[in-house]
Amino acid sequence: MMRLHLHLLSDSTGETLENIAKAALAQYDDVETIRHFWPMVRTEAHLERILQEISQNPGLVLFTLVNSEIRRTLETRCRALGLPAIAPMDGVTHALSGLLGQAAKARPGRQHVLDAAYFARVEAIHFTIAHDDGIGAEDWEEADIVLAGVSRSSKTPTSIYLANRGFKTANIPIVVESPPPPILYSLKNPLVVGLTTSADRLIQVRRNRLLSLNQVTETAYVDQEAVAREVAFARRMFADNGWPVIDVTRRSIEETAAAIIALVNERCGETRAEP
C-alpha cells in the first residue's frame, strides 16, 4: 500500500478539484490517499499557512487559482520543494481561449453564479424530493423523467442525481399487488424509464436493508421465487408500454443516470447534457 499526500487548493469551493482528483485516483489500486483540502484560498497570508503544511507533508499539489500572484507564489514554492503543482483546468481554458478568441474571466467560483440554470436545478431538486416513491402522481406530467422499478432498484438515488443535473424526476415503485395509477400510462411530457436488476442482486440489497433496520430477513420481500416474479412483472409492464429499460445490476448511480440522460437527449434530438 502506497501513501500519497494530496493537496487541493481552490479559490472557490474546490468541488471541481475534488471531482478531478477522485476520477484520477480511481485508476490506481493500493493507494492510501491523505487528502488536504484548502478551499477559498484568496490571500497570500492564507497561502503561506498552506505552504507550511505542504512542506511538512510533501505530495501532489492540484490547484485552481485565478489570482496570478498567488498562483505564481504557489508554483515557485512548490518548485523549490521539488513537488509537482498542477492546474488541471489550464489545458481546457487555454484551448477555449484560442477557439473563442477571448481571454478567460479571472473570477473565482464563476461556475457557481446564481443564474437561471442554478435556479432550475434547485427547482428540479425540490420537485424530485416531493415526488419520491410514487407521491404526487397528479404532477407527473410536469416531470422531465419518471423512473419505474421494483423496490430497491436505485430509483431514489438515481432521481436525486438527475435532479442535481437539472432534471425534474419522479419515481414510482412497481408492486405486483398494487398497480400504478392510470396516469402513468398516459404521460406525454416525461420520459418514462424502467429500472430493472437481477433477482439475486435485488435479494442481496434487500437483505442488507432489512439487517440495517434490525428486521427479520426471511420474508416474501427476499424470497427467491417472489422476487423473481416481481422482476418479471415489472419487465412485462415496461415491454407492454414500450418504455426503455436500464439494467442497474452492475451500474453505479452515475452510470445509470448517464444512460438516462442519453435517452432524454436522443428523444429530444439534441446533444445537450443538461436541460
Describe the structure.
This protein is elongated. The chain has helices at 15-25, 44-56, 68-81, 90-100, 116-130, 155-164, 199-212, 224-241, 253-268, and strands at residues 2-10, 31-38, 60-64, 85-86, 145-149, 169-173, 191-196, 245-247. By secondary structure, the protein is of the alpha/beta class. The two termini are 43 Å apart. Strands 2-1-3-4 form a four-stranded parallel beta sheet. A four-stranded parallel beta sheet has the order 6-5-7-8, sandwiched between helices.
Q: Short summary of the structure?
A:
This protein is an alpha/beta fold. 44% of the residues lie in helices and 16% in strands.
Number of strands: 8
The separation of the N and C termini measures: 43 Å
- Count of DSSP-assigned helices: 9
Query: DSSP strand (E) fraction?
Result: 15-25%
Low-confidence segments, ≥5 residues, pLDDT <50?
A: 271-275
Structural class: alpha/beta
Along the chain, the helix and strand elements come as: EHEHEHEHHEHEEHHEH
Largest sheet: 4 strands, parallel
C-alpha Rg (nearest Å): 24 Å
- Percentage of helical residues? 40-55%
